[in-house]
Amino acid sequence: MDPGTRKAPPTVPDPMPIPPPAVGFKPEPLPALEDRIETPLGTTPESTPVEEGEDVSVLESQILGVPKRKSIGLRPIAESKSEEPLEKIVSTKAQELIDESKHRAAQSEEAEVTEISKELSDEPKPVITRKPPPIKVINKKFRRRQRSFQPAKRAKRLDRSRHMEYKYEVRKLLEEIGVSEEHRSSLLGSIWAKGERQTVSDAKEYLENKLSEGIITEVHLSRLCDVIDDYTVRR
Q1: Model confidence over 163-195: pLDDT tens digits?
Q2: At 157, which helix (H) or strand (E)?
Q3: How far apart are CA 171 and CA 174, in angstroms?
Q4: Intra-chain end-to-end CA distance of the chain, in Å
Q5: Is 105 exposed, middle or buried (0-12, 13-18, 19+ CB in 10 A)?
Q6: CA 219 to CA 170: how far, in whole Å?
Q7: Helix axes 218-230, 200-213, angle to 10 degrees
Q8: CB within 10 Å: which end of the chain, N or C, has fewer?
Q9: Can you tell me the distance from the alpha carbon of 234 to that of 195, in angstroms, rounded to the nearest whole number?
Q10: pTM
Q11: Which residues of the chain have pLDDT under 50?
């Protein structure tokens, strides 16, 4: 391309004045510089990269008011290769930290397991108490107990309720009829015991034995038998 036939750069319209932002209003970001450049008519996209770079620098200087600086060169700057070792260093450190945290977690878990096992071993084992088997209640048939005591048959006996009266009367009688004093108490008690516990006939039989022994006379016997008949009841 002949440098004498270079076309003039495209004109860019003057920027519109921007009103002051309202309170609480966030200004929208300006569109990209490439979007604001209007492609002039009759230009082809096959222009060299040098021309495009110059046009962009001119537009930037016009819009932003920054003086144009001479570019150092058109060669692309090679990316620094120092990032790879930094990433590797960071990754190794992170891995070391991860491994260390895992190791600590494993140690803490082992310590907890040992503590729990010690507590379980120290705890006393529960004693299983077995309930005794229920006692079976055997319902026995109720049996009436036979009375061992059998009431005495009704017979003539001395009246138990008149015992004190009997004692005074017989003692007085023994004195009147002249029975010897050494035999009075035995006659008094034996006559009552035979006549009250057994029968009246047993008491009279006792007096007949005393008559045969010579302790009492026939007069004494008849008087004492009259007293026995006076205190006799059927029971």
Answers
A1: 999 999 999 999 999 888 899 999 999 999 999
A2: strand 156-158
A3: 5
A4: 173
A5: exposed
A6: 14
A7: 170
A8: N
A9: 12
A10: 0.36
A11: 1-4, 33, 37, 40-50, 82
